[in-house]
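Batch manifest, entry 17 of 40.
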Amino acid sequence: MRAHARLAIVAIALCTSVIAPSRAHADATTTRHLLDGVHAFKDGRYEEALVELRVVARSGDAPPDLAFYLGPTLFKLGRHREALAVFLASTAPRDALTDFYLGQTYYQLKLYRKARALFVALRARGLGPVLDGAAARYVAMVDATYAKAPGDATIDYYVELGAETVRAPDQALVAAEIFDEARLVEALAAAPHRHAEIGAGLGAAWNAAGRPRAVIDALADDRARSPDGSWELARAYVATGDAARARPLLDALIRGGGARARDAAALRAGLPR
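Output type: structure tokens
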């Protein structure tokens, strides 16, 4: 409990660290809302900050780094899943403070291995003494959680949560993180558990998010793929224009005659000859 209290103090201190943005070419109204949102955040008026930042998000000239302000605001309001979705969707390079908020968000969502990896990377990059100490405590808490190999029930929790999340609107990126947590936890288990299902779920989430390269990275070398995993990999190859690699996967699914055979045949028919 003492470690959690110290981390709460660090989290409060972080709210003063968001830097007001420089918007030389932005519309004056958008800039005003953005600055009002940042000032409200610094004052601890998170609901007001969210209102202002949502206005910016709906504008035609929202800054690419809006996630740096919107994500921490959602985190402070306890809307951790929304915060994670904002952080993941952003294409702007993240700074150390934004990554720290992302790490805290992972932790609050029980994505402990994802949080640990990020805090370790942040410490390697170099942090100030306050943030470095907090990051070290997060790592230590995760290590204590996994002092013993995780049981099947822990892996089941993430697999089932990922399957539920991927069906929700606009949650594909979050679902991919949950399935990746399942993958990381399963790697610590005494024996494989639902390995092929995790891979297939991860592939489905990445495909739903429009990131086929991530599917290929995750599944191309996985020799324990299920038919569902092979289907997601084939879809990813098709999406990247690699019909040569997609074709044998689809042919195998068609020959297997399982649940994916009809879908595979339809996708195979559309490939260039």
